[in-house]
Amino acid sequence: MITLNIISPELKKEIKLKNIYQILKVEIFFAMIFIIFYLASVISSKYILKSYLAEITQKNNIANEATNETIQTVDNINKKLVEVAKIQTENINWLNLLEAISNNTEDDVRYNKIAIDTKSGLALSGISSTREGLIKIKKFLENAQYLSDVNFPISNLLEKKDINFNITAKFKSYDFK
Question: What is the dihedral of CA 134, 138, 143, 148, to 10 degrees?
């Protein structure tokens, strides 16, 4: 079989160009459709991600508020515990001291004033019917392990009966047993 090519070279070129344009047209059409779908998926995923971000942010804020409340509660409890610990370390059992003074006091001794202070120490004043009762208090205070610098004026012992006395002492420790 013989094929004759009766188409002119210019017309051939034109047909070839038309075919190329046709192919390009189809390819551009599919590329445009692809780009449109791509943009649609990007834009929709952008909105979906924005909604997820808003939801996560809201949950995060709620969690932060709960955490802040918990932290504040823990801080308040810690402050109270520190205060309790401070009170416990600074707590002095004065009752044991008063009991020791009472146990070493004769019945004829009456106290007018018992002053106890961590800074100024112990001060006792009162009236003793006999000198022996006053001497017993003096010995007790001088022998007490937790007291020092017992000030017992000699004027306390000059009288035999109805003796007004004033005694002071400093604390070495606050371990009254």
Answer: 150
The CATH topology of domain 94-171 is Gyrase A; domain 2 (3.30.1360)
Are 135 and 143 in contact, with CB atoms under 8 Å apart?
no
Strand order in the sheet with 109-117: 109-117, 121-130, 161-171, 147-151
CA 45-48-54 angle, to 5 degrees, is: 140
Q: Go through 148-159 and write b for each residue having 16 or more CB atoms within 10 A of its CB, e for each that does not.
A: eebebeeebeee
Distant-in-sequence contacts of 8-14, Cβ < 8 A, 24+ apart: none
Give the predicted TM-score (pTM) of the model: 0.49
Report the alpha-carbon distance of residue 111 to residue 5 in Å, rounded: 145
Contact 150, 107 (CB under 8 A): no
pLDDT along the chain (177 residues), means of 10: 76 90 94 96 94 93 89 93 80 79 86 85 87 86 85 77 86 72
Place of tokens 């370390």: 89
Say how far apart CA 117 and CA 123 lie, in whole Å.
9
Choose among 156, 158, 148, 159: nearest CA to 126. Answer: 156
d(CA 85, CA 77): 12
